Each structure stands twice: as C-alpha cells, then as structure tokens.
Amino acid sequence: MRSLRAVVYGVGAMGSIIARLMLEKGVEIVGAVARSPQKVGRDLGEVASLGFATGVIVESDARRALEAGADIAVVSLASYLSVMFDHFKLCLEHGANVVTIEEESIYPWGSAPELAARLDRIAKENGVSIAASGAQDVFWMNLVSTLAGASHRIDAVSGRCTWNADDYGPEVAKHVHVGNTPEEFERHVAEHGWPDFVTRSTLEALVADVGLTAESVKTAVVPVLAEADTPSRGLDRVISRGRVLGVVDSATIATREGPTFSFEMAGSVYGPGETDVNEWTIWGEPDLHLRNDRVPTRLITCTSVVNRIPDVINAEPGFVTLDRLPKPRYRALPLGHYVS
Amino acid sequence: MRSLRAVVYGVGAMGSIIARLMLEKGVEIVGAVARSPQKVGRDLGEVASLGFATGVIVESDARRALEAGADIAVVSLASYLSVMFDHFKLCLEHGANVVTIEEESIYPWGSAPELAARLDRIAKENGVSIAASGAQDVFWMNLVSTLAGASHRIDAVSGRCTWNADDYGPEVAKHVHVGNTPEEFERHVAEHGWPDFVTRSTLEALVADVGLTAESVKTAVVPVLAEADTPSRGLDRVISRGRVLGVVDSATIATREGPTFSFEMAGSVYGPGETDVNEWTIWGEPDLHLRNDRVPTRLITCTSVVNRIPDVINAEPGFVTLDRLPKPRYRALPLGHYVS
User: Fold this and answer.
1) B140 forms bridges with which residues in the sheet?
2) Same domain, A285 and A146
3) Hey, is the C-beta of A151 within 8 angstroms of any chain B C-beta?
4) DSSP letter string, A270-311
5) I need a labelling partner for A104 at 20 to 30 A (CA). Which of A127, A197, B73, B158 fits?
6) Is B127 in the same domain as B170?
7) Is A147 on the interface with B (CB under 8 A)?
8) Which residue of B has its CA nearest to A289?
9) Residues A193 and A279 in one domain
10) Which residues of B are less than 8 Å from A21 in CB distance?
11) CA distance A265 to A300
12) What is the pLDDT along chain B (340 residues), one digit of tens a residue?
C-alpha cells in the first residue's frame, strides 16, 4: 500500500473538513495554502479546528507548499474555472493531481471549453489528472444515472435539490446575493448576466453519463425572497423580510437523442426545520423516482471529494470529467490502499 | 455494430416482458423455450402477448432452441441455483452467455458455492459468462453502494423493500405461501426450513460491492397475515382473513471490517393503494438516506436484465457476481451497440 501525500489548497469551511477526513483516511498532509492573513503562519490543525497540531504551517505561497511533492492537491478556494485556472495550472505543473470542489470543473467542456482544453494539455504534459467532485458526484449524477440503468425508455429527466446558503461560508452566501434587495439582484443580473453555476455543469455531466449528447442548454435564475426576517449564520446578520435569501438556479438540456433533462437547485438561507432534499424523476418506461431526505450537503461535498482521491490519481492523465470517473466507492481502508 | 441473437428461456410473466423489451432494443430472438404444453408449438408473439407474430415457435426442447446459436440466453424460469443448474449448464455448453433473474445467482458464493464453482468452470471452458440481474441490480445494490460513495465511515446499513406477490405469476405466489394458513406455513418452515431467498444473495452482493467482507449471515422469515379478505390476482382467488398473504424475508450480515448490513423484504399480496417502496439508510458519518417510491418492481426486474445483456457478453468468461458487473447503464441505442 502506498502512503499518499496531499496539499490542502484552501483552508476555508470546506477545506478544513477535507483536511480532517483525509487525515482520518491515512493521507499525509504535506502542505496547506490559504490567502487570509488570519490563517497564514498558523498550524493547519489550529486553522482547521482539528483539535491537534499537524506540524503543517499554512502558507500563502502555493508554490512552496507544492514543492514538498504531493500526489494530490485538494483545491477548495472559489467557484468558476476562470477564477481557478492559475491555481489548477500551478498544481499540475508541480506534478500534483488535482481534485477540486470547483463546480464548473465537474464538466467544463460546455461553459469553459478553452480553459478546460488548456488544463487538459498541461495535465497530460505533466502525467497527472484533474477532476472535480462534490454533491454532484453521488447525489446529482451517479444516483440518477444508476437509476437510469433500470430505464427501458427515457422521455425526460427532472431533478430538484435544496442547499443551505448558510453552510458554505460568506463567499458562497454573497455569491447567491444573500441580504441584497430584489432590485439589487435584478440590476446585477441585468448588468452582468448570471454565470452558469452548478446546474449546467452537473446536468451536462449527467447527460454524458446516461450516454446521451447535449444539443442545447438553457439556464435561468430567480431570487428566493425572505417572507420573514431570517437570521443568516453565514453572514452573521438578520436578512430582512423582502430581501434575497438565495437563488434558484436551473438548467435545461435538450439532447440529440430526444430526452430533455432539467435540474433546479434552490440555494438559500433556511428557515427553522428546513433540511436539504434531493429528488429526481425519470419519465419514460417506466417512470422512476428517487429521493434523498436530510442530505448533509456540506459534509458529503467533502466526503465525496476525499473518496475520489484514489480515482483521480489512478485516472489517465488529463481533464477527467465526472462521468468518466468510475462508480463512487466507500473507502473502508486508508486511501493509499486504492491506488493502483 | 453487432446484431445480437438471443434465446428467451422461459416465457412466463417475466420472460414475456423481457421478449418485448429485447425486440424493442434491436435484439434478434432466435429461440424460445417453455415447459407448459399451452405454450409449446405457438408463436412467441402470441404466447408473450406481443400483438404480432415473431416467426419464433416456442419449444420445449431447449437444446434445439440453443442450436440456432445465440449470443445470450435470457433465463427466467424458477428460483434457486440447484433448480436452475442444468438449464444454465446447457446454455453455457452451447456457447451462449447467460443472464437470469434467478435470485441466488446474484451472488451464489455464500449459499451455493459448489454449484457456482461448477458453472464458473463450465462458463470459462466455453468462453462465456453467466450473471444475474433484476430489482437487486439498480435498486437494492447499485443505488446503495453508490450512496456509500459519499460515506466517510459506515457503522451499519439497513434496507427495506416491498414487492407485490401478485405481480410474478402463481409460481412465486405459491413460493411465498399465499393462501396457506399460518399453521401450514409454520409447519412447513419447521419441517423443511426456509431456503435463503433473495435477501441473502442481495446483501452478500451489496457487502462485496461496498468493498467489505461478509463474516456471518443470519436469515429469518415471518409470515404476513391478511387482516381482511384480500383478493389475489396471482392466484385468482380471495385470501381469507388470517391466512398468509406473503412473507417478510430478512438477512443480516456481520462484516469483518465492522459494519452490519440488514435487508428486509416484504413480499405479499397488496391491499388497495399499496405500492412498492425501496428505502435504505447508511448509518455512520454522515447518516445517508435513500428512498424510491412507486417502484415498478416487476418491470424494472425485466428492464434491468435486458440492459445488462451487453455487460454479460462483454464480461470475462466465468460466473460474474453482480458486484463485478460495471455500473448499470441506460441503453439509448440497440443493445449490439454496447458490445465490444
């Protein structure tokens, strides 16, 4: 069994959980990278609230962290491939495989094909791979494509999930306009458009995984407004009635083969008692239904990424979209056990 | 693309559906085998209520049907590997791969290891494979093991499903003692024991697919009694209050690695409004939940088998347990397209 060496690239809400999960799965953390001056220079164990010192000092210079020599860089920093491109490139050029929760990287060939092609080439030149995982992996793609394994004929696929905008730190809460007025939100969308968020890349991966070909993609966004004053943990303040609690992102894909796929993702600050739900129907012969209640979306984003580490290391070099990774697996043993 | 040639081996409730699904997926049916004198000598289209003649005459001599030369024999005849052994052997010796809904063949190494080893050898000698599919495939194994791909730590796995004992013809209804008195049922179990039915092989396949090792298996059966007079479509008579409507089969497996797996399967004649449900929880970090409502168990048993045909033909020769088949897939194209 190989012992795996990892760099934790981004030590925010998600990176901190990922660090713990990796250590519990026998991964050696050889470096940690963060931007915030409050984190840099401190022990990873302290920054990630692990309850013990790791001996790894968080640093701002990713280059130095990567020079320790890592099998894998686990990158959880920000959304969008354009924002993350230089970070991914740096990791790959240092000979580290990359697994990330960056959402576009699930299936970037639709929304960011040129950046994906460049990273694919850089990965191949360095003999490593890059792939993304997260809640998309098990819940929004593999459970659904597995369910489709019982379909004789698919007419349409529709999915809906909810996630709590308070669970991912202030970056994400601000990204979905929590606390803004509806006018601010509409003005922002009118001026800047609304970048394709999770739904498009998720649905493109799902269509590919079901063995079909996307022909056209439509995306839409509408705000979720507070019906009562609602406290936001993520922003640590109360969102007044009438203000934005989050957004419903949706994507619809028409396929060359006929079936239409749609996915609606409601990310907002929850009221009391709300939990994450994931629900899909495959319409056809026969109609098939799938539902996950009380999905711990934040935690399974992290567990999915960590469980994928062996698959990304084992993959052929290049940009590996989620549909091209093997079936997700539980890892009973230290992760090095699963590396071929 | 190859055109696939199949023998429909068993033209009962399930074989009839399977025949239609195969024809709709571009499979050429070159033979059909049945035992009943009411079926033998008639066109498969008539026997299977396809609404058209196929030109294939149902015959009782399996040998003659197999001599047409088939890529695959789709066998849906009876339960238990001991009952089906000679039929499977005959197919394999004629160079036909076998896919079956026979439940023990999902994972026969626990309950029928010697028969499985003999068939494994015969399959290898003839360069073909044998595997089973059915509702186990997507709903009771792959959805659950895929869900486990989001688990960091598994403490226990428990599942429960229901199926309608009226949906599978009189063979199956009698097998689960529909219409007997509780005393008849208890006497039968006391005298003959209760053979491991679906739960054991399903759970053994699941444990293997999650990457764990079964250490000990317990099975149990209790009758489901009618609380009111209940009409049985399968037996075409009314089951009186207090008589057996079916059984709850359960299995529990302790694994070497720690987690306990249990699966409870309630197969009984339904009252009004009841539908098939499939529900699983993975206890651990985190707890994960999965539920399928309105499962068309009978139909997905057939669609799953048909969608597996390419995988069984592509498999390495031998007895291929369900956990060793690739992820279930939707087949948008004629099945020959997926044969490598």
Assistant:
1) none
2) yes
3) yes
4) --TT----EEEEEEEES-EEEEE-S--HHHHHHHHHHHHHHH
5) A127
6) no
7) yes
8) B292
9) yes
10) 152
11) 16
12) 778 999 999 999 899 999 999 999 999 999 999 999 999 999 999 999 999 999 999 999 999 999 999 999 999 998 899 999 999 999 999 999 999 999 999 999 999 999 999 999 999 999 999 999 999 999 999 999 999 999 999 999 999 999 999 987 888 898 899 999 999 999 999 999 988 778 999 999 999 999 999 999 999 999 999 999 999 998 999 999 999 999 999 999 999 999 999 999 999 999 888 999 999 999 999 999 999 999 999 999 999 999 999 999 999 999 999 999 999 999 999 999 999 9
B positions 310-329 inside 8 Å of A (CB): 326-329
Residue A37 CB coordination number (10 Å): 8
Q: How many structural domains comprise chain A?
A: 2
Chosen from B25, B287, B330 to mutate, greatest number of chain A CBs within 10 A: B330
Please name the member of A137, A154, A292 whose beta carbon is closest to the beta carbon of B289.
A292
According to DSSP, the β-strands at A129-132 and A97-100 are: parallel
Tell whether B148 and B192 lie within a shared domain: yes
| Token pair recorded at residue A245 | 């609690």
Whether residues B257 and B180 share a domain: the answer is yes
Cβ of B148 within 8 Å of Cβ of A296? The answer is: no
Q: Are residue A64 and residue A149 in the same domain, yes or no? A: no
- What ipTM, to 2 d.p.? 0.95
Query: How far from chain centre, in Å, is Cα B152?
Result: 31
Nearest chain A Cα distance for residue B60, angstroms: 29
Q: Are residues B143 and B285 in the same domain?
A: yes
CATH of the domain at B178: 3.30.360
B263 and B149 belong to one structural domain: yes
Nearest residue in B to A24, CA atom: B152
Handedness of CA B234, B235, B238, B240 (dihedral sign): negative
Nearest by Cα to B141 from A5, A239, A327:
A327
Which residues 223-262 of A are in CB contact (within 8 Å) with B? Answer: 257
Who among A148, A152, A330 is closest to B151 (CB)?
A330
Structure tokens at B39: 């079926």
CB atoms inside a 10 Å sphere around CB A277: 16
What global pTM score does this model have?
A: 0.96
Q: Which of residues 106-145 of B touch A (CB under 8 A)?
A: 137-139, 142-143, 145
Query: Where would I find the beta strands (DSSP E) of A178-243?
Result: 214-225, 230-232, 237-239
Tell me the nearest-neighbour CA distance from B47 into chain A, angstroms: 22
To the nearest 10°, report the CA torsion of A311, A314, A320, A325. -40
Nearest chain A CA: its distance from B79 CA (Å): 21
Cα–Cα distances in Å, from B137 out to B25, B307, B335? 19, 11, 18
The residue of chain B with its CA nearest to that of A306 is B152
Residue A233: count other Cβ atoms within 10 Å of its Cβ: 14
What are the strands, taking DSSP E only, across A101-152?
129-132
Full domain range(s) for residue A147: 136-295
Q: The tokens of A48 are what?
A: 């990630």
Tell me the two tokens of residue A280: 């899909």
Task: Write the CATH number for B332.
Answer: 3.40.50.720
Q: How far is A193 from chain B (nearest CA, A)?
A: 34
Asked if A215 is an interface residue toward chain B (Cβ–Cβ < 8 A), one would say: no
The distance of A170 to chain B (nearest Cα, Å) reads: 24
